[in-house]
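quick one before i forget lol
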Amino acid sequence: MLPTTRTGSYSTPDVFIAAAEESGLIVELGERVLQRVVEDTASLEAAAGRPLSLGCNMSAHQLRDAAFPDLVASAVTALGDNKLVLEMTETVVVTHDEETDAALRKLTAVGARLAIDDFGVGFSSIGYLQHLPVAILKIDRSFTRDVDSSPRAAALVEAILVMGAALDLRVVAEGIERPSQALRLREAGCVAVVGRAGELVVTLPAAGDTREETLELTFFLKAWQSRRAAGALELEA
């Protein structure tokens, strides 16, 4: 996440990212974000008190940039293996043409992990999951919003979790704002959630732990701590 200000207020990502893509600045912006991630990792890990993986959004423009794999390789070298997660929406990969496949495999070859962001709200085809080197699925908040109150929403989330497990993918639920959502997801087998603003990914206690108050306290304390430590960066456990 990379908040920007305009006239003293924050601009949402859908506004400034679209403007960056239209102006051709998205590649340069992505390069600066990677540099910032490398520069800030040590202080972020010190604040969190443990090693962290850091997620950066990746656009289709960056994927087509011939220099991008080298930039990613440099970041991975500086951060260490398995720390850098490149997140992309389904629109970036749904075509799964040879050029896209090759570009993504170059990124994983240099040590980056790939995540599908906002999973489930893009194209209906999920066939690309069997071809691309994706490691993480992030369930869109539109599915998790009512997971604690709607049996149909819960059933959809459970289906995604089962599919993710079958494909050996880490599944993260986005947009979690209430302990009851986290509890329902834990019951369904989800092991990690992230809050509405894209803060620190929280690993849920084991399903056998019935201390609901412990989960509530842990969830919100970690979310609060992440906002202090993360600033403009999204962190992943």
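fyi The chain has one domain: 25-236.
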